[in-house]
Amino acid sequence: MIDFLLGIFSEMFQMNMRDHHDMPFAMPLMMACLVGGLVGFIIVKFVVKEQQDDSEQRQVH
Protein backbone atom coordinates (compact mmCIF):
# COMPACT_ATOMS: atom_id res chain seq x y z
CA MET A 1 0.00 0.00 0.00
CA ILE A 2 2.83 2.37 0.87
CA ASP A 3 4.55 1.63 -2.44
CA PHE A 4 1.28 2.26 -4.27
CA LEU A 5 0.79 5.67 -2.62
CA LEU A 6 4.43 6.61 -3.09
CA GLY A 7 4.11 5.68 -6.76
CA ILE A 8 1.06 7.94 -7.14
CA PHE A 9 2.76 10.86 -5.36
CA SER A 10 5.94 10.31 -7.38
CA GLU A 11 3.98 10.68 -10.61
CA MET A 12 2.03 13.70 -9.31
CA PHE A 13 5.07 15.65 -8.12
CA GLN A 14 7.49 14.36 -10.80
CA MET A 15 10.08 13.31 -8.21
CA ASN A 16 11.13 10.05 -6.62
CA MET A 17 9.23 10.00 -3.33
CA ARG A 18 10.90 6.73 -2.30
CA ASP A 19 14.29 8.49 -2.13
CA HIS A 20 14.32 10.96 0.75
CA HIS A 21 17.24 12.85 -0.82
CA ASP A 22 15.15 13.73 -3.88
CA MET A 23 12.30 15.38 -1.93
CA PRO A 24 12.29 19.04 -0.88
CA PHE A 25 12.60 19.64 2.86
CA ALA A 26 8.97 20.59 3.55
CA MET A 27 7.31 18.01 1.26
CA PRO A 28 6.50 15.50 4.06
CA LEU A 29 5.10 18.35 6.15
CA MET A 30 2.89 19.52 3.29
CA MET A 31 1.66 15.98 2.64
CA ALA A 32 0.88 15.56 6.36
CA CYS A 33 -1.11 18.81 6.28
CA LEU A 34 -3.14 17.61 3.30
CA VAL A 35 -3.85 14.22 4.85
CA GLY A 36 -4.68 15.79 8.24
CA GLY A 37 -7.01 18.29 6.61
CA LEU A 38 -8.79 15.54 4.71
CA VAL A 39 -9.20 13.38 7.82
CA GLY A 40 -10.38 16.39 9.84
CA PHE A 41 -12.91 17.31 7.16
CA ILE A 42 -14.30 13.76 7.13
CA ILE A 43 -14.56 13.68 10.94
CA VAL A 44 -16.35 17.04 11.04
CA LYS A 45 -18.81 15.90 8.36
CA PHE A 46 -19.65 12.78 10.41
CA VAL A 47 -20.05 14.80 13.64
CA VAL A 48 -22.41 17.29 11.97
CA LYS A 49 -24.47 14.47 10.44
CA GLU A 50 -24.67 12.74 13.83
CA GLN A 51 -25.83 15.95 15.50
CA GLN A 52 -28.47 16.49 12.82
CA ASP A 53 -29.74 12.93 13.27
CA ASP A 54 -29.89 13.39 17.05
CA SER A 55 -31.81 16.67 16.74
CA GLU A 56 -34.30 15.06 14.32
CA GLN A 57 -34.86 12.18 16.75
CA ARG A 58 -35.47 14.62 19.62
CA GLN A 59 -38.05 16.55 17.58
CA VAL A 60 -39.94 13.37 16.75
CA HIS A 61 -40.32 12.40 20.43
Describe the protein's architecture and organization.
The chain is mainly α and 61 residues long. The chain has one domain (2-60). 75% of the residues lie in helices and 0% in strands. It has two helices and no strands. It has helices spanning 2-13, 27-60. The chain starts with a helix and ends with a helix.
- Low-pLDDT residue intervals, each spanning 5 or more residues: none
Number of strands: 0
Q: Determine the mean pLDDT.
A: 81
Class by helix and strand content?
mainly alpha
* Number of DSSP helical runs: 2
Globular, elongated, flat, extended or rod-shaped: what is the shape? Answer: rod-shaped
How far apart lie the N and C ends?
47 Å
* Series of H and E elements: HH
- The total number of structural domains is 1
If you compute it from the alpha carbons, what radius of gyration comes out, rounded to the nearest whole angstrom? 19 Å
Helix share of residues? over 70%
Short description:
With 61 residues, the protein is an all-alpha fold. The protein has helices at residues 2-13, 27-60.
